[in-house]
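Researcher: Here's the sequence for the chain we discussed earlier.
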Amino acid sequence: MNETDFLKKVFGTKYGEIIIFDIGAADFGHTIAFKEAFPNAMIYAFEADAENIKNYSHRVSNASNVIVTPCAISDKKGYATFFPSENYNGQPWRYSGSLIKPIVVPGTSEEIVHPSLHYDMKGVKVKTIRLDDFCRKNRIKSIDYIHIDVQGAEYKAIVGLGDLRPSYIFAETCEFETYDTGVTLADFDELMKEKGYKIVQRHDYDTLYVYDGKPIA
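Model: Thanks. This is the structure I predict for it:
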C-alpha cells in the first residue's frame, strides 16, 4: 500500500483538513501527491537545499494551504553545514543532500555506499529549526502525518519533536550507514519506541510508525 492509499484508509475524505509535514521535500513530488489526495489538507513542506527551492518550489507556489519553509529540520535551532549531492552517474542529482557528512572514498567526493554519487564536501551553511519550535511559533497543536526523508538526519529531526507526538511518521530508514551519523536503524527504532511509536510497516527503504494507542485502520 502506498502512502496516499494508507492516508485515505486511515483518515478518509471526511478528515480532509488534516495537517501533513513533508520534511526533505526535494522536488515537492510528495507534497503534490498529498495535496491531490487531500485538497483541504494543510501541508508544510521543508527543504534545506537552496537549489531545490529555486528549481522546484514553483510547483506548489499556487497551491492553497501549502507552506514552504527553506530550512533544515534538526535537533537544534541555529545554523549548520549542509552537504548537497551534486551528480549521480554523471547526471545532476539533488536528492541526497544531508546535514550529516556523507562517507566518501578517501580523497574524493564519491560516496562509498552508492558509487558514482558525488557531493559538495565543503558544504553550505543552512538555517536549522526544531519541529517543536516551529509548531509553537505557528500555533500548530498537532500533526496528523509526517513524511520525512532527510538522508540519515532523521534521528536529529525526531529528537527535535520534543513533546510533540504526530499520529503517524513515515521515515526513510535505509541511509544511516551512508552518512557519518553514528546511528543505526536499531538506534532509530529505539528512539521511536521511547517516544511511544511502534512499527506498522517496514519496507526495504522506509518505515511507517504509529503513535502507540492510535487505532490502526
